Amino acid sequence: MRPLLLLALLCLAGCIEETVEVPPPIRLSEEALGHYCQMDVAEHAGPKAQIHLAGLPMPIWFAQVRDGIAYLRSGERSHDVLAFYVNDMGAAPSWERPGAGNWIDATAAFFVVGSDAVGGMGAPELVPFAREQDARAFAERGGRIKRLQEIEAAEVLAPVEIRPQEPVS
Fold it and tell me: Burial code of 53-78, b = ≥16 C-beta within 10 A, e = fewer?
C-alpha cells in the first residue's frame, strides 16, 4: 500500500504548477537609475523600459526601450524575467515627457522599428504603443511595426551611430 500511496503523491506533485505573481509596473520617479548608465532615467526624453526580475524587489530601468530589449536578447541575465513594461507613447504627454504611469506590457505592445526617432541615450529608438493605429500613425514618418517577439537581436544589439536628440513631434 505504501508504494502505491507514494506513487500517487508523486503524480499529484507533478501536476501542481508553481505560480509566480507578476509584479505591476512601478511609476517612474527620480530614484530610477538606468541599468547600463546609472543616470537618472526621468531626465532623458523618449520612451523608457522597466524589467522586473525574480528575486529582486525593484525593477531594473532603461533610459531607452531599445536598451531594455537588448538586455532581454543578451546573455547577461542572471535572474528570470517576471515582467517587462514600456511607456505607451500613444498616451505620453510628449516625447520629452513620456509619462510616469503610462506603462504597458511589452509583449502586448506594437513597436515602430526603424523610424527616425532617437531615444534618451542618442541611439535609434524602438517606439512602443498600446494601440496598433497609434503605431501606424507614428510609422508614417518611417519605420515598420513589429511585436516584441518579431524584433531581431541585431536590431537592438548591433552597433549604432549615437545622434544628438531632436524633439519628436
Answer: beeeeebbbbbbbbbbbbbbbeeeee
List own/partner pairs for 69-76 with CB under 8 A and 24 or more apart.
Answer: 69/106, 69/126, 69/148, 69/151, 69/156, 70/156, 70/157, 71/35, 73/153, 73/156, 73/157, 74/157
Out of 36-50, 68-82, 104-118, 119-133, pick the least confident: 36-50
Mean pLDDT of 33-37: 75
Residue 132's Cβ-count burial label (10 Å; 0-12, 13-18, 19+) is: middle
CATH code given to domain 31-157 = 3.30.70.2060
C-alpha cell read off for 102: 503610462
With contact defined as beta carbons under 8 Å apart, do 164 and 125 qualify? no
110-164 confidence digits (pLDDT tens): 999 999 999 888 889 999 999 999 999 999 989 999 999 999 998 898 877 776 6
Nearest residue to 134 via CA among 167, 91, 84: 91
Q: Where are the domains of the chain?
A: 31-157
Measure the CA dihedral 77/78/79/81, to 10°.
10
The CA distance from 154 to 105, in Å, is: 22
